[in-house]
Each structure stands twice: as structure tokens, then as C-alpha cells.
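[worker-b] picked up task from shared queue
[worker-b] task type: protein-ligand structure
[worker-b] ligand name resolved to guanosine-5'-triphosphate; SMILES cross-checked against name lookup, match
[worker-b] sequence length check passed
[worker-b] input payload:
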Amino acid sequence: MALLARDAALAVFEDGEQDRGAVSRPEPSAFSEESSIEEFRELVVSAGARVVGELEQHRAKPDPATLLGSGKVTELAGMAASAQAGVILFDHDLTPTQLRNLERALPCRVVDRTQLILDIFARHARTREGQLQVELAQLEYMMPRLTGRGSEMSQLGGGIGTRGPGETQLETDRRRIQRRVLQLKQDLEAVRRTRSQQRQRRESVPVPAVALVGYTNAGKSTLFNTITRAGVLESSRMFATLDPKLKAIQLPSRRKVLLSDTVGFIRDLPHTLVTSFRATLEEVQKAEVLLHVRDCSSPVQDEQKAEVEKVLGELGVLDKPRIEVLNKIDRLTEEERATLQQNAHRGIAVSARLNWGVDTLLAGVDAALTQDPIVEQRFQIPQSEGEALAALGAGAVIRDRQYAGNLVTLTVAGPESLLGRYRRFRKA
Ligand SMILES: Nc1nc2c(ncn2[C@@H]2O[C@H](COP(=O)(O)OP(=O)(O)OP(=O)(O)O)[C@@H](O)[C@H]2O)c(=O)[nH]1
Ligand SMILES: [Mg+2]
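[worker-b] inference finished, payload out:
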């Protein structure tokens, strides 16, 4: 089977950095050519760049040395020079050799798809853990691409190797990077330890976790906000959410759950990233129910769904109960909306932005959690039993609380498993 390589190149202008560039793109995946180019344009804009030109190449087989054919490389060099591009972005991953050869032949910086996604991640990481993860992924990606690239290393902050690419300099750079990688790994380990201690504390109360997952831009953060009114960053830029956001919410049955917003998935998510971001995806693995948020107004929603399911498979969570949330129905015509709502088995139709269908969704989450039904019981607990009182307060809904001496009498509605733990305090 012949491989059809499509190499669109966009020349871009990076805001603030007075940088301009051009881009290229890979063989077609399940995504149609146009939608995949569109997605790449969005990624470029999310990275804060402005496109000043595009170049596309159809080729039976990519050139192992330069990806593009030599005629195209010359054409691209001319385009980049006349548009004064500061960076050329390829919607394709480049081997270390291709990157080196292209940088020699072209008048400006060359950035491939993985590097671009890493750059976007770097801009959006908010917590220390997120920032450490991105820097680690960036360095690990750079390492094999160091040879002959002394001068470009200055991009990595800390002014590493701003001099020419002499072998001695390269060795120094490499050692410095290795030291930094080691340091980052240690720091990450420390941050994760703290987080896992916090989680243990949290898990002493069995509040089920519900995680929002989905393709980037599907509307997870918007839905999270609509449900929690938490004011978590929501943005039309891709990968706005990198750090897990958690919030306790109450379902219609009065069951409390922890809702988490997570990083969006994207086609061809670089492997280094999936590992680096595994920590933020731990929330997904810990969850009892997954809400797969989908942009049902997108023409490529089926491809996006397949991509998300692929990542869920990699995370080993495909067997968890999963609810399809068909979001952005406000963008559909009445007719399309009606069809969707009639096909309830496909999922729950909502508009996160307009708060449509959210109650139905919460009822659906409740129904998915029926293994641990909500029960109501009366308890009489000594006030000295702080742990029991705190656990019931966190995981259940309490009413009619009365104090008599050092005893508290209360009615508790909550998951059977939680109430069962304190049956010794049950009041007949
Ligand atoms: N019309 C419409 N737009 C929506 C809806 N939900 C979200 N959006 C928009 O879609 C864009 C992406 O929303 P986010 O909530 O940031 O998406 P996300 O899934 O969290 O994206 P990442 O964090 O990048 O993975 C924003 O511009 C939202 O305003 C909806 O129900 N209707
Ligand atoms: Mg988000």
C-alpha cells in the first residue's frame, strides 16, 4: 500500500515573539484531510502563532532525509524568507536527522507536531506538577535531537548552550540536561508523594469519583463549571486544562461524588506525553464512572470518539461504566437535536454552555452508581468520635442533627458502604 504523505506547510507569526513560520502535515489518519488541517491550524493558533502561509505536499513516500522532497524544501525556504517567517511548523513528527537537515536548509526555526503540542502544554500548565511534567517531556524529546543543534538549545530556558555546536559544547549541554532531567524527576516524585498523601486522606471517605474525559475542546471544563459553578478556567484555546480539577457535588439522590475535570485528548498524542501526564490521568483511573464529553456539532466527532477510546484503552479503563455526553447541542438544528434526543441510547444530550440536559445527566450518573445504593439511617454518635462524624459529613447528607450531652443524634442519607462502616452507632 502506498503511503500518501500530505505535507501542508503554514507560515506562522508568533505573538509577542515576533516569530514567523510555516507548517507541514502527516499521512492521513482516520481524520479527513481538511478537518485534520483545520485541527492543526487551531493548534498553531493555540500556541499563540499567526499563520502567514501554508504548503502542502502529496508524496507517495516521505523523504527519509528531509520528509519533503528537495524541490519542496527549496520552495518552502523561499516562502519562509519572503513572508519573513520566524518558525516553520510541521504537522508531522520529524526524526532527529530530518530536523537537523531541514534546519540547515531553511532560513528559520523548525518545529514538529510533538514540539508544538509540548509548547501549548507548557503555556497552559498551571500547577507545579503540570509545569514539571511539561519541562521533563520537553527535555526528553530534545535529548536525541541535540546533535549539531547547539545554538537552538537556548530555547530551553536557562540559556543552555547559546554558543556554537562544537562537540564539547554538545557534551556540556547533554550533561546539563541530564542533570536537569534527574532533578525534575526527583521534584515530580516529591510533588506526587504529597498528592498521594492528600488522596489517601480523601479516600478515607468513600466518595465515588466521576471523571470528565474527552477530546480537547469538547467542552469538559465548561460542563464542569456548569455543574459546579467553580469558575475553573474555560477557554477556546486547545488544552486549556492540564491540571486535574476536583470538586465535590451532590447528585439528585443526595449522593455526593467528586467530579474531576481532566486534560483533553488529541489524535497522535505523543507517547512521552501520555507517560508524563499519566499523573493527571490518575483521576481517570481512580474514577468509578467516566463521562465522555463529546462535541456533537463537530463533523469529525466519530474520529474523535475513536481517538478518545484509544487513549482510554491505553489507560486500561475501558471497562468502567461510561456515559456519553453529547455536548454543544445548541449548535445543532432543531431537527438534528430531536433525532439525537430520540436516540437516548447514544448518550445524554446536553449543552454545557446553556445548562440544557444537565439534570438528566446527573440522574444518569446516579443510576450508574447503583451498586452502592443510597440509604437513610439514624445514628447516635459520641462527639468524641470525630473521625466518624467527619466521614459521614463528607460522604453523606445529614439532617435533624441534635445534641444531647456528649451525644449527637442525626439522620444520615448516604451510600450503604459508608453507613455500614458506622453501623455500631446505628440508632433503632
Ligand atoms: N456552543 C457551545 N459551545 C460550547 C459548549 N460547551 C463548551 N463550548 C465551547 O467550546 C470551547 C471549549 O470548551 P472547554 O470547556 O474549554 O473545552 P475542554 O474540553 O475543557 O477543552 P480542553 O481543556 O482543551 O481539553 C469553549 O469555547 C466553550 O465555550 C456548548 O454546550 N455549546
Ligand atoms: Mg478544559
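[worker-b] attaching auto-annotations
[worker-b] Confidence is low (pLDDT under 50) at residues 1-21, 24-29, 149-165.
[worker-b] releasing lock
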